[in-house]
Amino acid sequence: MTYELDKERFGEFVSKLRKEQGMTQKELAERLFVSDKAVSKWERGQSLPDITMLNPLAEALGVTSAELLNCGRLEESEKIDASQVDELVEKAISLSDEKERLRQLTNTKGIFIYLICVVIGVIGAILCNFVYLESINTVIWTFEGLFAVFGAYFMFFVKERLPEYYDSNKISLYGHGAFRMNLPGISLNNRNWPYIVTSARTGHLLGMAVTPFLFLLAFWLLPPHIVDKWIKLLFLIAAVGFIVVPIYAAARKHK
């Protein structure tokens, strides 16, 4: 027998407990390092938190994880038998399954958006082949490849949540496998990380799709020898404008 966690009952219970604690949705969200929109969706029964949020959420609301999964308080005199334990475990698993289904849906949309940007960027780079010198085209394809690789990483492989030690220490370096990102002057944590990831995704995809056309425009406005001389600098300016500036802006806004 499979047990499903009732979203509406879960949301009502979370809402009730939050109000008992005298917290607003925003205050609860800040304690959990999530957005107030996420809390609102939980309470309206539109989504469920990630299984990793279960213990922090229970602690913030003054109940046990078992009570959260049960969508109701348990009296101390009540004993949980083996079948009840199995049921609660199944409900916990359903939280993970729900998150995975949402992730798969997001990835499907993400793949579609990513491929569209790749196609637009390739078309732009091919058009550049007809008007630019060979040395310039090499630079364009190199930067397009970098935008595509790092864009794919942020779209499909980056971790959505940082380890808890980021929230209690000032850390500006993020590492995941061979990938390294250092943001001097920024303390990474689970308050600003979702916005940093979103900015990085958007910036890399826009950079990949738009940059070749910006250089077509530059070719029409400037003499070819000027474009040839300054193309690497122009690409760096584009990368800063599309990626670095939005990331720093998002990190500081949500610090």
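(the above was protein one; protein two follows)
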Amino acid sequence: MAPVTVGTGLAVGDGAFRWDAFFMTLIVGVAIQVAANFANDASDAARSADTPDRQGPPRMVSEGIISPRRMWTATWAMVAVALAAGLYLILIAGWVLVWVGILSVLAMVTYVGGPWPYGYRGLGELFVFVFFGLVATVGARFVHDATAPVDAWVLAIPMGTLASAILVANNLRDIETDARVGKRTLAVMMGEARSRSFYAALVWVSFVVVGASAAFGLTPVATLATLGLGPFGFRAVRTVSGGARGAALTEVLKSTSRLQMATALALAVTTAAWG
């Protein structure tokens, strides 16, 4: 929802906003996110990556609550919802969205599935930055009038870095269990200390980009109000840098998600009113 919110705010500020484009994009974004989580649950279970000592919310397939077949059925049902809404967006914004949709579904399925799961090879954060940052934000702006202005690309960066920070917190929490089952996430490859530093860098880069874009006139000066969320970022960084583990990192994951949504709302309001 966060990148869609930013793209929508930009469209309002540019006088290009369409209600139908907004609702359909929101459906696509949420459906793809849900489908990705369903697919990850089923794929991790198939690779025995979810062990009993894993931290975090229960995984449905590995714990036998939902069968793999039912989970994959639910996954493709959500993909179908995304495709149905996506077809409408193609009609109003052009066929370039076909390729966006195809690549998004492929990225979703191959994150921890398929013969070469990139999430097991340290590429998860990069793909999250691209698809839940650049693609989602710029795409949410593009659907309104088939344009992708510079400010959409700029504000896609903090959306991508904060989304990646969420994944870093998740993988840092699971670093020991992932390493034992051969799941080589970026956290496993970098090690605990560097992963904590990487999390901090992602959060602070988000605020630096917002401040710099306003200072250089790429976005309205009013977007500087977003920097008022800095203390919440500082709190999360302090927790991670202080050596938080287990349930404490689950709380960081949640607080980072809230920080991303709050940042998106602040950017959307300021760009819509003063864009």
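Reviewer note on protein two: The chain has a mean pLDDT of 95.
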